[in-house]
Structure formats: structure tokens, C-alpha cells
């Protein structure tokens, strides 16, 4: 990726480095119409949501899933070499692990938010592509007659292939319509059993879309005036909601374009909205602290603390991303 000279704001860069699509060129391939499956994604005992614009689908009685998403869910790093048309799946570095864990945390939050939302199955067109797949240094090839597909820059492979290629448990439970995966670390820790069989038909409830927007501080219990402690607690909750929604809103851009420059522009626009929402939250907090009787010194120190934490969080993402990309 030619990103070593591009400086994105913290959240944007940290997310984009993990979500950059596997943009295999399928322009000359003949598209195949498949039906999206409403599938539940459960990895290491935790429900996860597919990023917006990514799906699970069935083709020739096999369930296909996004290679990058599943690799991340199993705590693996993914690198796409567009020139060589090669996908490399490997163990993450410590810097990559930091961003990966954040991604999984937000994917789990998105799954919880969308658990009660119905997903309408629809027909989608995918294109067969020829790519080299390397897992932990060894090239893996699909069995004769099976195919890798691409949709909007995302690579899709069969469930069973991913299980065998990574060398861990990934099963399809046709009764519940679930893809159930267990990373090596999870299995070695003795968490759970191998679970369901690996038949590859059926459907269930699928991954939902990531949310957006920010929280706001509310009134105290019973609708009365808030105390200083209540204002601070409510503001903290609002800021935690803002952080989650900002990350999810940027994740929601994935699949909307395969143009990295356009994706970066959109993501920076989302971050600008997040900055505006943060400033609005600070204005609200200041007013509520004044109404609660806090003195000016306490108000200034509290707002400064929130602002420092917000900027440090963005800096943490930026530093992790630069370490990941080798930017000095």
C-alpha cells in the first residue's frame, strides 16, 4: 500500500489500515448471482457483526464468508498484494494486535446492537477471481471445482476451506444458521468444545450494520437537578457512546468504494463530525456542571481532562497505525 506518506487522523488511519479491501480485479470475470444468507457469526464464544456491505452466501451448497473478516475474528493479520494478487494471512505483530482487538470489540458491540433487527435476504452478484492464498507462510489452494469470489473488493471463500487453511475450528451449524469459529488461543485456553458439525447449507440471523451518532447526557434520576457527580458520570457515558459510534460510522464506510483516496476522504469527513459532536458534548457538560454548582476551577479541570483523553485516544490509534505501517 502506498500510504507511507499519507497522514490520516488517528481513528481513520487505524481503522482503514485494518479494513482496506482486498481489491482483486474481477473485471473480466463472469458474475454469478447468489443469495445472501442471514448468518450468525460467533467466534471464540462471542457474537460478531459483519461490516456493512459484506455478506455470507451459498454457492453450490457451500457457505461462503469474507476471508478478511474471518481472519480477524480468529486473531490473524491480513495483507493484500494487489500487484501479485496475493492474500497473506499470518500472526499479527503486537502493534497490529492492538488495533485488531479494538476492531473485534466494536464488531461485538455492533452485533449486540443489531441482534433484534431482521435482515432481509437479497440476491447479490459476485465475480470469480484468481488469487494466491498464503496462510502462515504456506500457499493453500481450494479443492478442484471450488472458486474464490470477489464483491466490492472483498474476497470470499468457503467455510470449510478457511477452517483447513488456518488449521483451527470453523464450523457451519445448519440448525441455527451460524458460523462458529474458535481460534487456536481460545482452544488452547480450554474455552469451549469443538461444537457443531460443518455441513454447509442453511441460513439463520445475520450480521447487522454498524450504528452511528453520538450519545448525550441526560437528567438525573427522577428528573430533578443533577449533582456534579451525576453530570460527570453521564458525560463519561456519553463520551464512551460517542467513541463507539464514531468507530462504527467509519467501519460502515467499508464496501462503499474500492478507491482508497475516496474512502479516506469519506472517513475524514466522518471524523470531523465526531469532533463536532465531542465539542457539543463539552458545551453540554460545562452548562450542566455550572447548573450543578461546580466551581469554575473544577469545571475547567474536568473539561480539560475530557479533552486530553479524547486527543490521547486519537493519538493512540494514530501511533498504532503508524507502527503497523512502518511509518517513521
From TrEMBL:
Domain Copper amine oxidase-like N-terminal: 54-180
Record carries keyword DNA-binding: no
UniProt region (Disordered), positions on chain: 190-222
Signal peptide: 1-26
Compositional bias segments (type: Gly residues): 192-222
Alphabetized UniProt keyword annotations: Signal
Name listed for the protein in its UniProt record: Copper amine oxidase N-terminal domain-containing protein
Amino acid at each position: 500500500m502506498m500510504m507511507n506518506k499519507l497522514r490520516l487522523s488517528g481513528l481513520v488511519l487505524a481503522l482503514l489500515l485494518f479494513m482496506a479491501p482486498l481489491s482483486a480485479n474481477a473485471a473480466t470475470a463472469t458474475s454469478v448471482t447468489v443469495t445472501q444468507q442471514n448468518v450468525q457469526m460467533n467466534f471464540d464464544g462471542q457474537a460478531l457483526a459483519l461490516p456493512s456491505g459484506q455478506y455470507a452466501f451459498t454457492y453450490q451448497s457451500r457457505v461462503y464468508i469474507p476471508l478478511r473478516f474471518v481472519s480477524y475474528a480468529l486473531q490473524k493479520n491480513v495483507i493484500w498484494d494487489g500487484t501479485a494478487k496475493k492474500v497473506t494471512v499470518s500472526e499479527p505483530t503486537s502493534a497490529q494486535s492492538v488495533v485488531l482487538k479494538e476492531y473485534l470489540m466494536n464488531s461485538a458491540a455492533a452485533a449486540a446492537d443489531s441482534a433484534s433487527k431482521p435482515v432481509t435476504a437479497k440476491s447479490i452478484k459476485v465475480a470469480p477471481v484468481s488469487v494466491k492464498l498464503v496462510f502462515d507462510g504456506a500457499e493453500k489452494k481450494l479443492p478442484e471445482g471450488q472458486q474464490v469470489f470477489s464483491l466490492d473488493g472483498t474476497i470470499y471463500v468457503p467455510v470449510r476451506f478457511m477452517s483447513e487453511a488456518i488449521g483451527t475450528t470453523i464450523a457451519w451449524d445448519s440448525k441455527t444458521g451460524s458460523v462458529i469459529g474458535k481460534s487456536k488461543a481460545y482452544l488452547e485456553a480450554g474455552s469451549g468444545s469443538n461444537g457443531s458439525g460443518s455441513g454447509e447449507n442453511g441460513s439463520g440471523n445475520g450480521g447487522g450494520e454498524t450504528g452511528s451518532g453520538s450519545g448525550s447526557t441526560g437528567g438525573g434520576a427522577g428528573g430533578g437537578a443533577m449533582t456534579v457527580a451525576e453530570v460527570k458520570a453521564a458525560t463519561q457515558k456519553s463520551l464512551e457512546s460517542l467513541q463507539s459510534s464514531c468507530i462504527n460510522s467509519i467501519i460502515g464506510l467499508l464496501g462503499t468504494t474500492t478507491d482508497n483516496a475516496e474512502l479516506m476522504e469519506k472517513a475524514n469527513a466522518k471524523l470531523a463530525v465526531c469532533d463536532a459532536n465531542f465539542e457539543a458534548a463539552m458545551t453540554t457538560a460545562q452548562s450542566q456542571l455550572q447548573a450543578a454548582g461546580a466551581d469554575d476551577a473544577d469545571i475547567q479541570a474536568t473539561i480539560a481532562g475530557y479533552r486530553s483523553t479524547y486527543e490521547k485516544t486519537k493519538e493512540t490509534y494514530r501511533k498504532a497505525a503508524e507502527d503497523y505501517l512502518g511509518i517513521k
